[in-house]
From TrEMBL:
Identification of the protein by name: Myrosinase 1
Molecular function terms, GO-annotated: beta-glucosidase activity
Family membership noted in the UniProt record: Belongs to the glycosyl hydrolase 1 family.
Organism: Neodiprion lecontei (Redheaded pine sawfly)
Organism domain of life: Eukaryota
Keywords in alphabetical order: Glycoprotein, Glycosidase, Hydrolase, Signal
GO terms, biological process: carbohydrate metabolic process
One Pfam family of this chain: Glyco_hydro_1
Keyword Signal recorded: yes
Signal sequence interval, chain numbering: 1-20
Subunit-structure text: Homodimer.
Length: 504
């Protein structure tokens, strides 16, 4: 028996060494997909071309420029409506496998409803999709990325349950028009973000403050709209088109300020990831979420929980409506219990305070600090919580002020992708794809053009919106040609960085 244990120990050591060596190589597995992404309002421009209708971001930026850091908008943005062929050529030249883009609801349906379809609007997306396919690039299409028609918002937007059927009708038109070419669909991008920031705050359109209620009502209707769209695709299109449909979540990672405080970490994950993912995989909201929101609602004097309930019928409809797990990840939060609760005061639904370790490297975004190990923590949590589903990283990237010599961006990509590969190879996380955010500098929502995520610089003050490669674009070309992470170039003299005209 002694010799047996020695042999097993040696065998395990050898396997671990092989596994670690494989990780250190930092190569992408065979079949692993790498793409890049954008979103309609952030890049298209052409805000009032042809018969396009007004969307919530058109309305919000035109009426409240004071809420945008630089007072600007996406009226022109990257001008991709006119320059899509140039963008596709760029994506092909860099070597990406796929391009994730979104469709503007109000460009396709000017009135917001399916009774009026814009031929010009739909043709633009047909042309873009055809151009991608002709160049060997897979189109990955997001049906909704935050820019619903203003007319629908006038009727309550995502807080009105009628939006569920309006969204399904919109999605059906896209499946009919593009489904022969598009095999990977995303119904809705980051509902956790726009529901909270758009219906309980003023950092995202429509900028309504419905405290304590707005985000949950929005999220409830998002889940219904996603699930009914998924079921409609099942019934009407899946057999003939053979595509996959999922939702994409904005997921932070969490680390406790006290290493023994596993409860705060778990609760934070359930309130962030579980809010949307739990219904998709188990049919209903996490138990801790239902319990906590009911508790705090009662403390605040509400007659019932502010978190809506699903009927048995809706639980059956929603459960199992995710073909893959879409993850947008950027950063990590520190968490600890709210000390006010020791005094019997309930201020936060989760009971957990989220903060930042300010010793972590900062970015141009005040919410975004760099902590690569958090990426692995998140991926392993998803693996354990949801039975290791196939995962697509649908956004990951770095914000700066726009420099061409973007060494920090390359360092970010290297460190985060390394953590992803360790989670994939060593820890068995079922990650199938990784998406670079973003192919272009673009309109960064409430930050306007003051924060840049692109690997390609766009000159927004030039009528031609000219594109210029950044250092990170060249780095990605090498990564994609080798299918392996490349070393981070050394910044030998920060003072020698290229300055753009607006930086001088």
């Amino acid at each position: 028996m002694k010799h047996y244990f020695i042999a097993v120990t040696i065998f395990c050591a050898i396997i671990t060494r092989i596994s670690c060596c494989d990780v250190v190589k930092l190569t992408f597995p065979s079949g692993f997909r790498i793409g890049t992404a954008s979103a309609s309002y952030q890049v298209e421009g052409a805000w009032n071309v042809s018969d396009k209708g007004e969307n919530v971001w058109d309305h919000w930026t035109h009426n409240h420029p004071e809420l945008i850091t630089d007072g600007r908008n996406g009226d022109v943005a990257c001008n991709s409506y006119y320059k899509y062929k140039e963008d596709v050529a760029l994506i092909k030249n860099i070597g990406f496998d796929y391009y994730r883009f979104s469709i503007s609801w109000s460009r396709v349906l000017p009135t917001g409803f399916a009774n009026v379809i814009s031929e010009d609007g739909l043709q633009y997306y047909k042309n873009l999709t055809a151009e991608l396919v002709a160049n060997g690039i897979e189109p990955v299409v997001t049906i909704y990325h935050w820019d619903h028609p203003q007319v629908i918002e006038n009727m309550g937007g995502w807080t009105n349950e009628l939006i569920v059927d309006w969204f399904v009708a919109y999605a059906r038109i896209l499946f009919e028009a593009l489904g022969d070419s598009v095999k990977r669909w995303i119904t809705i991008n980051e509902p956790d973000t726009f529901c909270e920031a758009g219906y309980e705050g003023t950092t995202k359109a429509p900028g309504k403050v419905i405290s304590g209620i707005g985000k949950y009502l929005c999220g409830h209707n998002v889940l219904k709209a996603h699930a009914k769209t998924y079921r409609m695709y099942d019934e009407e299109f899946r057999e003939s088109q053979q595509g996959e449909v999922s939702i994409v979540l904005a997921l932070a990672s969490y680390v406790a300020t006290n290493s023994s405080d596993t409860e705060s970490v778990e609760t934070a994950f359930q309130f962030n990831c579980g809010w949307m993912a739990h219904p998709l995989y188990f049919g209903d909201y996490p138990e801790v979420m239902k319990t906590r929101v009911a508790l705090v609602s009662e403390y605040q004097g509400y007659p019932r929980s502010r978190l809506p309930e699903f009927s048995d019928e809706w639980i059956a409809i929603i459960n199992g409506t995710n073909d893959y797990f879409g993850v947008n990840h950027y950063s990590t939060n520190l968490v600890y219990p709210d000390p006010a609760e020791e005094l019997g005061v309930y201020r936060i639904d989760s009971g957990v305070i989220r903060t930042i370790d300010f010793s972590w490297p900062a970015t141009a975004s005040n919410w975004f600090y760099v902590y690569p190990p958090g990426f692995g923590v998140l991926l392993r949590w998803i693996r354990d919580e949801y039975n290791n589903p196939p995962v697509w990283i649908t956004e990951n990237g770095y914000s700066d002020s726009g420099q061409l010599d973007d060494y920090e961006r390359i360092s970010y990509y290297y460190d985060y992708i390394k953590e992803m590969l360790i989670a994939l190879k060593r820890d068995g996380c079922n990650v199938e794809a990784y998406t670079v955010w973003s192919i272009l500098d673009n309109f960064e929502w409430h930050a306007g053009y003051t924060e840049r995520f692109g690997i390609t610089h766009v000159e927004f003050d030039d009528a031609d919106t000219n594109r210029t490669a950044k250092l990170s674009q060249n780095w990605w070309m090498k990564v994609l040609s080798k299918r392996k992470l490349q070393s981070v170039p050394t910044n030998t003299a920060a003072a020698a960085r290229t300055l753009l005209p607006w930086q001088k």
